[in-house]
Write a structure and sequence with these properties.
Blueprint: E1 2-6, H1 11-15, H2 18-26, E2 32-37, H3 42-47, E3 53-56, H4 74-80, E4 85-89, H5 96-103, E5 108-112, H6 124-131, E6 160-163, H7 175-186, E7 192-196, H8 201-210, E8 220-224, H9 228-235, E9 240-244, H10 247-254, E10 259-263, H11 268-271, E11 278-282, H12 291-303
Parallel strand pairs: 1-2, 1-4, 2-3, 4-5, 6-7, 6-9, 7-8, 9-10, 10-11
Helix pairs in contact: 7-8, 7-12
Length: about 300
C-alpha cells in the first residue's frame, strides 16, 4: 500500500504526526510512505523508519497541489501515479487539492485541517488519528531504542538537556530563570547539555552571558544549530530534558526521555508533547513559574522515578 502524507507546519507540528504514522504502518500491509513536510524533520523520518521517501513541503513542485488548472509537472505526476491513499493535513476549502489528486487516479483521499477546531480540547495526535479512523488514544512507541542506563548508579554523571528557545517568544520561560536553574544544577555538579536552533541565537547569547564559568569544563556542553538526528543521538545519553513548548521538546518526548515541558499560553491538553515520560508545568504567565518549582520537579521526575 502506497501512501502520500502531506503535513505542512513547524518542526513540532511535523513530529506530532509520527505516532499517527507509526499506528498507520502497524495496521497496513507492506506500507510504503511518501512523506512531505518540514525539511528539518525529513532525515529523522527516514532514520526512524517513519517513511520510505521524503520531500520538502516548501519545494516549488508541491505548490502544484493548489494549482487551479491541475497538476501538469511530469515529475510530480510520475511521483503520484503509484499512490493508493493520499492524506493531506491542510485546509482545502475549495477542494482544489482533492480535485487535483483525484484527477491523477488516486481514489482514497483524506483531507483535513492540521489541528482541531477551537472548541475541541482533544490532543493533536488523537485528532489526527481520528481523521484516519485509527484507534485512540494512539499507542506510544519510542522513535528509537533508548539505551538502558539503569546500571549507572550515579545519574548525576549524565547531563540534563536544556533548550531555552521556542518558535514564539511568548512561549518561552524567562532566560534569567533558565540561568538561575542551570546555576543551581551546577551547584549539584549536574552537567548541562545546552541546545539551540537557528532561531535561538539571541536567547543563547543572553543566557551564556548570564552564566558564570562552570567549575569544570564537563559541566557545560553546547549543541547549536545541528541536525535533529544529531540532537536525538545526544538526547539518548541524557538523564532528562527541560524545555519550552518547542519542536526539540517534542523530539525528546518521542524518544521516551523524561521530559519536563514549560507551558505558557498554549493549551497543553492539545499541544503537550506525546509520550509516556512527560511532565507538564503550566503557567499562563510563564514569568510566574518559579525556578524552585522546576528544580523540585527535576528531583522528583528525573531521579526519584528511577
Amino acid at each position: 500500500m502506497h501512501y502520500l502524507i502531506v503535513r505542512p507546519g513547524a518542526i513540532g507540528d511535523t513530529l506530532l504526526t509520527f505516532p499517527v504514522i507509526q499506528a498507520l504502518r502497524a495496521q497496513s500491509s507492506n506500507p510504503h510512505i511518501t512523506f512531505v513536510g518540514n525539511a528539518a524533520v525529513l532525515p529523522l523520518a527516514l532514520a526512524a523508519h517513519i517513511a520510505e521517501e521524503v520531500f520538502d513541503y516548501d519545494s516549488r513542485q508541491w505548490s502544484a497541489l493548489f494549482a487551479t488548472d491541475g497538476i501538469h509537472s511530469p515529475t510530480l505526476q510520475a511521483l503520484l501515479q503509484h499512490i493508493d491513499v493520499a492524506i493531506c493535513w491542510l485546509r482545502d476549502p475549495e477542494q482544489i487539492v482533492e480535485r487535483n489528486l483525484r484527477s491523477l487516479g488516486i481514489q482514497r483521499i483524506v483531507i483535513a485541517p492540521g489541528h482541531p477546531s477551537h472548541n475541541e480540547h482533544i490532543h493533536i495526535v488523537d485528532y489526527l488519528a481520528r481523521t484516519l479512523n485509527l484507534q485512540q488514544p494512539v499507542p506510544f512507541n519510542p522513535l528509537f531504542y533508548t539505551p538502558d542506563n539503569t546500571h549507572i548508579r550515579d545519574h548525576s554523571m549524565q547531563p540534563i538537556a536544556i533548550h531555552p528557545g521556542s518558535g514564539g517568544s511568548h512561549k518561552c520561560w524567562p532566560i534569567t530563570h533558565f540561568a538561575s536553574l542551570i546555576i543551581k544544577l551546577w551547584q549539584r555538579n549536574i552537567p548541562i547539555l545546552l541546545l539551540a536552533g537557528p532561531a535561538d541565537s539571541e536567547r543563547m547569547t543572553t543566557l551564556l552571558s548570564l552564566l558564570p564559568l562552570p567549575s569544570s569544563p564537563t559541566l557545560l556542553t553546547t549543541l547549536i544549530d545541528v541536525p535533529l538526528q544529531t540532537i536525538a543521538q545526544q538526547l539518548q545519553d541524557c538523564v532528562g530534558y527541560i524545555g519550552n513548548d518547542a519542536g526539540i521538546t517534542h523530539l525528546a518526548a518521542l524518544l521516551a526521555l523524561p521530559t519536563i515541558v514549560l507551558f505558557g499560553p498554549s493549551d497543553p491538553h492539545i499541544w503537550r508533547p506525546y509520550g509516556s515520560t512527560t511532565h507538564v508545568l503550566h503557567e499562563l504567565i510563564l514569568t510566574n513559574l518559579q525556578v524552585d518549582t522546576v528544580l523540585y520537579t527535576v528531583d522528583e521526575f528525573f531521579y526519584h522515578m528511577r
